[in-house]
Structure formats: C-alpha cells, structure tokens
Amino acid sequence: MSTPTFEPQDGQHRPAESTQDATPAAQAPADGATPPNLWKPPQQPQPPRPPQPGRPPVPTQPPPPARPPGSPPQPLGPNPALISPVRLGPPNPTLFQLRWPRRSVAAGPDALAGALIAAVVAAAALPLDRPGIGWPVAGLGLVTALLVVLLRIEPQRRGTGAFEATCWSAATVALLSVGVFRAAGWLFALCVLAAFGTLALAVGAGRRVPAVFMAVLNLPLAGFRALPWVRWGMARTRAREGAAGATRVLASIGLGVLLLVVFGALFASADAAFDRIVQAILPELSLATPVRWVFVGAVFAFLAIGGAYLLHNPSTVGDGTPRPARTVQWYEWVVPVGAVLAVFAIFVGVQVAVLFGDRDYVMRTAGLTFADYARKGFWQLLVVTLLTLVVIAVTVRKAARETPRQRLLLRVLLGLLSAGALVVVVSALWRMDVYEQAYGFSRLRVLVSAFELWLGGLIVLIMIAGVVPVTRWLPRTAVALWVATLLGLAVLNPDRFIAEQNVARYADHNNSDIWYLSTLSADAAPALDKLPPGARECALSQISRDVHDADDWRGWNLGRAEARRIVPDPVRPDRFPCYRSYR
Is Transmembrane helix given among the entry's keywords (predicted)? Predict the structure, then answer.
C-alpha cells in the first residue's frame, strides 16, 4: 500500500495520487541526490536582455546538462578556497641534517669538565702580547681535554681515528712550542694559524679537499651549534647530581681558593725567597688582568666545546661522494695540455743552459745583470707554478679514465707537466738565491722561498698520487707538508739566518741595510753582536728596548733571554742614529 502525500491547493489538503502515478518532479530522488523542494514554485526562465548600443553583448552561459535519473553523482572538484599556498608535508632536510646530523643530544661530563679545565689553564698560562712558554701549555691543556673525550667514545662511533687525532694534536703543540724558542712574531703568527688548522683536522673527519677547507670553518660553527648541547648536558648533570651536589662542588672550590690565598700570603710575608717565587708565578694584577682571563678562558672553552661536539657529531660537509663530472673527449684536454707542455719544453731547454752556464752567458743572452734577471722572473715563475697545479686539477677532473689507454695517456702527460713544473720551481729558487746574493736577505724573500719549496713538495705528492690508486690521503698530507715547512723554518731560525748573511755581506762588501737589521727580532741579536762599533749599536737599539723588561714564566722565550744577555741595558738611539740606507 502506497503512502499518501498531501499537496497544498486553495488552502485545502487533499491526498495525492500514489508515488507510482506521480509526475517525474514528484518522484523519489535517486540514491545520493538532493530531493526536490516541493514547496518552492518552479522558476521561470529569464528572457535575454536586449543588447544596448555601445556595449558588447554579454555572452550567456548554457545551463548545465541535467543528470539522467538513476545515474551516480559526479565527484566534486577541489575547492580553490581550501587549497593551501604552503607546501604540505615535512620540509626538505637542511645541509646540517644531511651532512652534519646531531647524534648526541647532550654533552657528557667529560666534555664539560674538559672545557672548564682547558679554559682555566689557558687563562692562567697564556700571554697575549708575545710568544712564550704559556702558549704550548695552553695548547696542551686543550688537546688533552679533546683526546680524553675522543677516547671515551666507542671506536665504531668515532669520526676520526685515535692515532691520527693524536698526531694532529702533537703537531698543534709543536707549532705552539715555536714561541718558546723563537721570538720572531711573524713566524709565530704563521705557526698559530697553522696550529688552528691542525686542531681542526684533529677533531674533523674529512678527507677530500673541500672537507679539509671546511674543517677550519666547522670548528667555530661547532662551537655555536654546541651551545644547546652544553645546556642540555648541564641540565642532565644537575638532574643527576641535584642542586646540593653542585653547591658542594662550588663551595669546595671557593674554600680551596681562600685557603690558597691565606696560606700563600702568610708564607710570602715570612720568607723572601718564597715571596720571589710567588711574584714570578702570579701575574701583574691590574684592571685589564681579569678581562684577559675572561677573554682567554672563553675562547679556549669555546674551542674545547666545539671540538668535543665535532667528535660526538662528525661532519661530512664537503666529504660526500662527489658528483660525477662531465668528462670530455681525449682530444679536448690533450690539445690544451699539449700546448702547455710545448711551452714548458722550450722553457726547460732555456733553463738548462742558464743553470749550467756562467754569468757572461746570462748577460749576453738576456741583456741584464744577474740580479735584474732574477728579480724579473721569480714572481712570474711562482704564478706559473700555481697555475700548473690548477691545470692538473682541472684535467684530472674532466679527463675520461674508463679504459687503460685513457688512464695511461693521462698519467704520461700529467707526469711530464709535473716534471716541467719541478724545473720551474728549481729555476725560481735559483733566481731567488741570485737575487739574495745581490741585494741581501729579508723575511719576505726567505718566506717565499720556503713557500716555493712547499709547492715543489706538493708537485712530488701529486706525481705519487698519479701512480697510487687511492688518493684520499693527498689533502691532509699536503697540510702536513706545510706544517713540516713551518717547523723547518723555526729550526732554521730565519731572523738569525738573515742577520748572519747580511752581517757577512757587510764584512765583505761594507754594504748592508743596517736599518733593516734593526727591525729584526731578538733572535738576531747573537749575529748582530758581531757588527763593528756604531753599526752594532744601531742594529741592536730596537732589540734592546724590546727585551729590556724581564718576562714572567708565561712569556719566557729563549731568543729574548739570549738577547737580554747580549744587551743587558737599553741602547740610546740618539747616540747611534740609524738611517734607512745602504752603508
């Protein structure tokens, strides 16, 4: 039996016919369709508006096609208002997340204690104004703290090996120890910069060239990234030991300092010899002393925390798998390298005649004196050596090495190019020697000669790398070679060597720049003491003022101690004026 429906008509209600006989408008809707509103009268279609003059007709849109009864509903498209302009989902990983992830959440007690000890030792020992024994003492405290952190890490989680880290740490202390024996500030500054690089390699794990360069930047970056790491480590330590434990530690430290001051003051007032020892140990207290302590301690604590963070969270920035370079055909690199080899062959032929010829041959051939010939060509040959290294690096990157023939061709041509570069190095060193014999020795000439020697050794390493299949040792070995070069300069004692050569030149030709000799460091005092009267006082006047005040134990230096023995009293420069001229 069908259910009756009622439709309004003339204010009355009457039963409608059954749904089986109803009109299509009154039929039941299909599944999922909206039922029609039977109480709303049907809308009459609006007639189109007549076009108005001067306006284009408005296009009318046709009504959407009616959906056949019983058909499934069409899926609705996305609502533009609900589309987010921001990309949904997890963000792309950053460079640090990919190459330098954080593996350790909080700093351990060994890292925190090591940073504190390194800061205290450096603040108490390091002299900022001059080289001295305090520099290797501070460096030894820093590297010892880092090595303790490294040894407490499980071997499989270490980014660098213990033996290699120990070698780089020993190189750091050796470079800082130059300040104990040599007073030359320029040499010690180079050693301090190199010591920072060796410290970065001791805690870094990179092997490729970009990773070695990035190691110097990773160490200070690690210090900043380690600040939350240290904060969580301190919070974990406080939670483990409690506030009472930290208070007891601070109280014990304060009590120890108080007893040290009281008993030290009593013993110093009771005995003059003990008072002299205390005066030698304690620094001269002034307003700047606490500032220096805080600054030095903060710097070394920053380095210790950054190094410990790198040991726990190794960085692989610059050390990943290199992207495969687009190789070129063999003739595309053989032609330019062959052109360079041709120039090298001509230059080598000329240099053989010059190196084994006499002075008359050089003067007839070049039309210059030996000194002018050397001065004109050294710097150009230095640039040629650097450009040759660039050519070798680019060729190794771009040349194809799939077949044995390609590898053999690459090794032969680059081996010949490296041999030509070695001849350039020898020629440059020979020219510098001639130039020094004519005009004397100076710091810049000695330093660039050492740099040229290092370039020659680097070329030899490149030739060895062309034969050895694994070359990941080359970048770090190049740095080790530069460290050996600096230590060799320290053994040479460059300021004293320069003074000895110029003093001998003054004795032979009575022609030397005495004013320049007076600008050398205290290392040159034993050689300058051999000058004749007048010239001796001129050369030693500046040195006598620099070493007049005695050093405490932090700034003790062998070169200054020897110079203080030679010139115990300052030399008055008004009695022995020095002019910048050759005499």
Answer: yes
Return all residues near 46 (Cβ < 8 A) that are at least 6 apart: none
Strand intervals (E) in 176-290: none
Worst-scoring range by mean pLDDT, 34-48, 178-192, 348-362, 458-472? 34-48
Q: How far apart are CA 103 and CA 323, in angstroms?
A: 26
In Å, how far are 111, 122, 224, 539, 552 from 293, measured between CA atoms? 21, 8, 21, 36, 16
Please say whether the beta carbons of 28 and 19 come within 8 A.
yes
- Residue 133 contacts by C-beta under 8 Å, 6 or more apart in sequence? 179, 180, 553, 554, 555, 556, 557
d(CA 447, CA 548) in angstroms, rounded, equals 28
CA distance 535 to 506: 10
Q: How many residues does the chain have?
A: 583
Pairing verdict, β 6-9 and 12-15: antiparallel
Cβ neighbours for 458, distance < 8 A, ≥ 6 positions apart: 389, 478, 481
Sign of CA dihedral 317, 319, 323, 328: positive
pLDDT at 523: 92
- 209 and 475 Cβ atoms separated by less than 8 Å: yes
Is residue 378 within 8 Å of 447, Cβ to Cβ?
Answer: no
* Rounded Cα distance, 547 and 561, in Å: 8
| Helix, strand, or coil (residue 441) | coil
